[in-house]
Structure formats: C-alpha cells, structure tokens
Amino acid sequence: MLPMMKNKGFAALAALAIAASAAAPAHAWGKKEQGFVAGALTAIIVDELIDNNRHRNNSPRYVEPPRYVEPPRYVEPPRYRDPAPSYRSVYATPAGQAFNSYSHAERRAIQRSLRSYGYYRGSIDGSFGPGTYNAIAAYARDAGATRNLNSSSGVYSLYDGLIY
User: Fold this and answer.
1) CA 21 to CA 116: how far, in whole Å?
2) Could you count the other beta carbons within 10 Å of the beta carbon of residue 62?
3) DSSP string, 124-159
4) Does the pLDDT of residue 8 top 60, yes or no?
5) In this predicted model, what pLDDT tens digit does every residue of 29-45 receive, in sequence order?
6) Reported confidence tier of residue 156, pLDDT bands at 50, 70, 90
7) 3-class secondary-structure state, position 76
8) Domain range list for the chain
C-alpha cells in the first residue's frame, strides 16, 4: 500500500510542477529554463516508472524444495583386535611345531581322534600338513579355544586333550 501512495504522490507532484510551470509569468521563465525543468521532471518520472517496474517483476520464482537427507546412522567404532601372528606356512605355526615334537605314534593318535570327532578327513600318516592344521583349527574353534593356537603351550594342551 505504501508504494502505491508513493507513486501517486510523485505523479501528483509532477502534475503540479507541470501546471505551475505553465501558469508562471512568461518574463520569469525563458525557454531554456522551462526546458530544463521539463527535462528534470521527465527524468524523475521515468526513473520512478522504471523502479516500479522492477518491483512488480519480482514475482516469486520456483525454488526447489529442500531434499530430505537421512541423518547419519551410528556406526560402532572398530574394536581393537590383538593381531594374530602371520606365518608363511602351516609348518611354521605353533600347531605345526608342537605336532612334530610328538612321537610318530602320538601324532597318529591325534589324527585318529580328530577323525573320530569328524574334523580330519585325510589319511592317518602321522605327518603334519594343511589337512591336519585345518582339523585342529576347526576343533579349537568349536571348543572355544582359538586363542590356544597362538601359543605353544595352548597347542600342547589341545593335542594332549586329544591323545589322553
């Protein structure tokens, strides 16, 4: 409402100025003065018309609505794991070294026990290899003693439990 009153006020002021210039005595206003006033008023009126046109063209534009962003989920931080020693072969593991310290008859007894429990499928030859290692690892996992495979004393306890 305020801009409309402002526009009407300027229009009334311009009309009054034009009317006053025409009613002024001829000797007070020369042609140059009248032209200057008319040009100044014309510039003011044109400026107001342009300014009004700018305000009218500011119609609301399409604004893309904000997209839903899923809040981040809680991710449990990684837990510390005691790094298991890495060996180049199964023969260098504590299980392989402990197995080879037993006598040939004891090694065959260990393989027989692992076969009777369903963990070993190879031949009962008393030699340590990937089949025997996988069987003792599966036995330890099912017995809840996987940490025993990381130390010599733990492996000896597993083997002794299979022999005696």
Assistant:
1) 124
2) 5
3) --S---HHHHHHHHHHHHHHT-GGGGGSHHHHHHHH
4) yes
5) 678 888 888 888 888 88
6) very high
7) coil
8) 2-52, 90-163
